[in-house]
Write a structure and sequence with these properties.
By secondary structure, the chain is an alpha/beta fold. The protein has helices spanning about 135-145, 160-170, 190-205, 220-235, 240-245, 265-275, 280-295, 305-310, 330-340, 370-375, and strands at about 15-20, 25, 35, 35-45, 55-60, 95-100, 115, 120-125, 155-160, 180, 250, 260-265, 315-320, 345-350. The chain folds into 2 domains: about 5-185 and about 295-375, Rossmann fold; about 195-290, Orthogonal Bundle (Rna Polymerase Sigma Factor, Chain: A). Helix 3 (about 190-205) runs antiparallel to helix 7 (about 280-295) and helix 4 (about 220-235) crosses helix 6 (about 265-275). It is globular.
C-alpha cells in the first residue's frame, strides 16, 4: 500500500487539538453552549510564510479528517480523496497547504455523542446538543485561528462538505477567496429530510439503541445502523449504475421463491451496511443526519436565499453530476443563477456521470482538472 501512495502524500499523522475551553466555549446555533471540543485534523503540504496558500477541505457525512495518504504501513487503503491531493494533483501539495478536519458531532476524533462528557465522566449519548452545519463551520474557524490562518485560498467539499463551503462563503466572506461546493444544496429538500428520518427511525427502533445509552452495554445497535446505512447508500447511487453493476443477478437460484436467496444488490448492501458499524457510531449518524436536515443557507436572512448569497465575495465554482438525484443539479443552478444575476463571478459545471451522488468520490477524472485550474487561476 505504501508503494501505491508514494506519488501522493505518503505517510500522514492525524493531529488533535482541544478548542473552545472555558471561558471561551462555543455558542451553538441552538442556543446551547459546548466545550471543550476535541478536533481531529490532518494537513498536507507546507504553509507559506505569509499563510496565503491554505485550502480547507470539508468532508461528507461519514467522512473524516483522513483525506489522503496512509496513517500507517498497515493501512489497506489511502484517505477518502487521495487521488485529488498530492504533488501535481488538483490540490497540489507543492503549492498549497490543505487542511481537513473531522466535523463536530462525528465519532472520528472530534467531539460528538460518543465522546466522554467531562462533567459526568460518561459518554454524552443523547445528552449531546443538536449541532448544525453552521456549528461545524464555527469549530473550523476556531481551528484556523489556532493555526494562525486568517484567510483561506479556497474552501472545497462535496455533499455535507459542500454545505460547509457555502456556509463559509456566506458567514465569513472576508476570510475566503474561493469556494468549490460539489454535489450539494442550499437547503435540504423534503425528500432529503424524509430519507434521513427513515434512517434515524431504523437506528432508534433497534432494541440495542436503548435511547442512545448503549456504550457500556457491549451490545451496539448494529442492525439499526446497518439498515440506515443501506438506505443511505442507495441514495448515493443511480439506477443506471446499479443496473450496470448488479443487473438482476441472483445467488442461489434454487431459493428464488423463498427468502433464502439474495440478489447481488442485496448482498452488496448487506456487506456495506454491516461493515459500517465497525467504524461509525450510531448516535453520530443520528446527529449528523439531523444537521443535514436543519441546513438552510438562507436561515436568519429576511430576504431569503438572495440576501444570503449577496454576502458572498469569493469566486464560486459549483460542480454537479447529471445522475445525482439526492441533491439535484437544478437546485445548484438556482444558486448559480442568483449569483449571476448579481454579477458575481460564478461557474456551474454539470458533469455527465452515471454514478449518482457518489460521483465526486469516484470519477475524479471528470473534475480534477477543473478544480486545479479554478484554484490556481482565480476568476476576474
Amino acid at each position: 500500500m505504501i508503494n501505491e501512495v508514494l506519488d501522493g502524500v505518503g505517510l500522514i499523522e492525524t493531529h488533535s487539538v482541544t478548542l473552545c475551553q472555558s471561558p471561551d466555549e462555543l455558542n451553538l446555533q441552538s442556543g446551547r453552549i459546548l466545550g471543550p471540543i476535541e478536533v481531529a485534523y490532518e494537513s498536507y503540504g507546507v504553509l507559506a510564510a505569509d499563510r496565503s496558500n491554505a485550502i480547507l477541505l470539508c468532508h461528507a457525512l461519514a467522512g473524516d479528517a483522513h483525506a489522503a495518504g496512509v496513517n500507517s504501513a498497515e493501512d489497506q487503503k489511502p484517505g477518502w480523496w487521495d487521488p485529488m491531493i498530492g504533488p501535481g494533483r488538483a490540490l497540489d501539495t507543492d503549492k498549497y497547504f490543505i487542511i481537513c478536519a473531522n466535523v463536530l458531532g462525528s465519532c472520528r476524533g472530534t467531539t460528538g455523542p460518543a465522546s466522554v462528557n467531562p462533567r459526568t465522566g460518561k459518554p454524552y449519548g443523547m445528552k449531546f446538543p443538536v449541532v448544525t452545519i453552521r456549528d461545524m463551520v464555527e469549530v473550523q474557524v476556531r481551528l484556523l485561528d489556532h493555526l494562525g490562518i486568517e484567510r483561506l485560498l479556497c474552501v472545497i467539499g462535496g455533499s455535507m462538505g459542500g454545505m460547509q463551503a457555502l456556509e463559509w462563503a456566506v458567514r465569513y466572506p472576508d476570510r475566503v477567496k474561493s469556494v468549490v461546493p460539489i454535489s450539494t444544496t442550499g437547503a435540504s429538500s423534503p425528500l432529503n429530510i424524509g430519507f434521513n428520518n427513515i434512517c434515524r427511525r431504523a437506528i432508534m427502533s433497534d432494541p440495542n439503541w436503548r435511547e442512545g445509552d448503549y456504550y457500556d452495554t457491549g451490545e451496539l445497535p448494529v442492525d439499526g445502523l446497518a439498515t440506515a446505512r443501506m438506505l443511505g447508500h442507495l441514495t448515493f447511487m443511480s439506477d443506471r449504475s446499479m443496473r450496470r453493476k448488479f443487473g438482476r443477478r441472483i445467488s442461489g437460484r434454487e431459493g428464488v421463491y423463498d427468502f433464502s436467496s439474495r440478489y447481488d444488490v442485496e448482498r452488496y448492501l448487506h456487506y456495506n451496511g454491516y461493515n459500517f458499524p465497525k467504524r461509525f457510531d450510531a448516535n453520530s449518524y443520528l446527529y449528523l443526519t439531523k444537521a443535514l436536515d436543519t441546513f438552510d443557507l438562507s436561515e436568519g436572512f429576511p430576504g431569503g436565499m438572495e440576501e444570503a448569497l449577496s454576502r458572498i465575495k469569493a469566486d464560486v465554482l459549483f460542480l454537479t453530476f447529471t445522475s445525482d438525484w439526492l441533491y439535484l443539479p437544478e437546485d445548484t443552478e438556482y444558486l448559480a443563477a442568483i449569483l449571476r444575476h448579481k454579477g458575481h463571478p460564478v461557474e456551474h459545471l454539470s458533469l455527465r456521470s452515471d454514478y449518482g451522488h457518489d460521483a465526486f468520490l469516484v470519477e475524479y477524472h471528470l473534475f480534477s482538472k477543473h478544480v486545479g485550474e479554478f484554484i490556481s487561476h482565480p476568476r476576474p
